[in-house]
Fold this protein.
Amino acid sequence: MNRADAERLIVKIADNNNEIDAAQALRYEVFYCEQAATATAEQARRKRDFDHYDGVADHLIVIDPAIVDKSAQVVGTYRLLRHGQAKTSDGIYSAGEYDISRLLNRGSKLLELGRSCVAKSHRNRQTINLLWQAIAEYIDRHNIDILFGCASFPGTQLENLRLPLSYLYHFHLAPSEIRPRALDGRFVEMNQIPKHHISEREARFAIPPLIKGYIRLGAQIGNGAVIDHDFATVDVCIVLSRAQINARYGRHYQMSRGAV
C-alpha cells in the first residue's frame, strides 16, 4: 500500500449496525478462515465473529472506500471496552483468563482492548498506525488511565513458545501492584528458560507483530500465559499506561480526520 492508498483510509468508531456487522465479518474471516479458531454453529452459519460483549463495546474500524463491495470496506478493527472506575470484573472479557483485581483496585479508568485484526490486503504499518492514532485520541477523549487486554501467540504448542514467553517474563513483567495473573487452573508458567540463557534478539524475532508492537510502546506483561483452545492460541495479558501511548501517539501524531 502506497501513501496515496493509505491517505484514502477512514478511521472511526462504528456508528451503525452495518458497520459493526462488517467488523464482525472481518473478524470471522481472519480468526476462523485464515487462522484456526473454532466457530460455534451460529457463528459458522452467519459467518460472523460475535459475542455478548459486542453490544456494550465501541468498535474502532478502518474503512477503505475504494472497495466496491461496501460490506467488505472495513479492513481493520479493534474492540474497545471501557470500564470506568470498575471495582469488579463483571463485564470484562479478560477476566475469563486473568485475575485483574490489582488493576481494578486502583480506581483507574480502564480500557480493555480486544478482537484486533486487519485484512490481509491492508496488513501493514500504515493501517496499524491509523488504529493506534485513533486509540490515542480515544483514550484522551475518555480520560483513560490504563489499557489492558489479552494478546495472542498463534498455536497451542507450548514447547515452541518457551523462548518468547520466558523473554516476556524476564524483561517485560508488569510491576506487582498492577500485575494481572492467569487464573488458577489456566495458569501456564512463562519462566521456562533462565534469563542469562535468553538471546533477546532471537526471542523478539519469535514474538508476533501485535505483541511486539505493544512492547515497543512500553507495554508490560501479566504473570502466566493461558491456552485458549477456542481460538487455538496462547494468550498473554498486556498492560499499557496512557502516558506510554501519548509518548508515541501524542497530540502531534493525532489525526485531523476521522471521528473517534
Notes: The chain has one domain: 3-253. The longest helix spans residues 17-34. Confidence is low (pLDDT under 50) at residues 252-260.
